[in-house]
Design brief:
Length: about 230
């Protein structure tokens, strides 16, 4: 086990470095259209007034995201300075998908065979209630682990996914559904936390897909959302 941990240290260090990269920043040389070169620091810019921005549905999902000259009907506005930007892939077994794959999954899988396929909104209930992607089922990432205080929620969530808790850390996964998980966007780690929990249970990773863009990417292309 000690040897395995030593071997994993470089990978863990790389993951941490990758997550910190937008905040540490790095310098590049940019060539302008007239041929002149300028040094630019590439980083995620977070003004001081944005640091303590509250995390709430109303603040994140409303208003515009374009020039003031564009009709309000044609644009949206998003918070850009919260969360932790996620890698494009979760691991080499779980496929990352985009809007077209999600649409196809909803139309040709979830809608025709909900016993075997499910679109999973892994955000907490209050966010799901505000709105979600049509057909999505709420399985909050923070209600997926056993907690004696919230056993009803825990068992209900496992049932939605087709999992049976056999006790002693063992699970019957023979009925596990093929799922796509998502949360708020590329800066949201909630679906990643949910996937880690599922993998720990032994959930077949070939049955898991990840919509990394989540709600923000969904709204960026003006796809339909529904209130709950």
């Amino acid at each position: 086990m000690k040897v395995l941990y030593i071997l994993l240290l470089p990978l863990l260090a790389f993951a941490d470095a990758l997550l910190n990269l937008p905040y540490i920043g790095f310098e590049v040389v940019h060539t302008k259209k007239d041929g002149s070169k300028v040094n630019v620091i590439v980083q995620r810019e977070v003004p001081s007034e944005c640091i303590d921005l509250p995390m709430s549905s109303e603040i994140f999902w409303s208003s515009r995201y374009a020039s003031s000259e564009v009709s309000p009907l044609c644009k949206k506005e998003f918070v850009t300075t919260k969360g932790i930007i996620q890698p494009i892939t979760f691991n080499d077994k779980i496929k990352t998908v985009g809007e077209l794959e999600v649409l196809d999954f909803i139309k040709n899988k979830v809608s025709t065979n909900p016993q075997e396929y499910m679109l999973v909104d892994s955000r907490p209930k209050s966010w799901y209630d505000y709105f979600t992607i049509p057909t999505a089922v709420n399985v909050p990432y923070d209600e997926m682990e056993k907690d004696e205080m919230f056993m009803e929620e825990y068992l209900s969530n496992l049932k939605k996914l087709g999992i049976v808790d056999l006790g002693n850390g063992k699970f019957d996964l023979s009925g596990a559904k093929t799922i796509i998980l998502f949360c708020n966007g590329a800066w949201c780690s909630q679906s990643n936390k949910a996937m880690n929990i599922l993998i720990k249970m032994g959930y077949p990773q070939e049955k898991i897909m990840w919509y990394r863009g989540g709600i923000q990417s969904w709204l960026n292309v003006n796809l339909t959302v529904v209130n709950n």
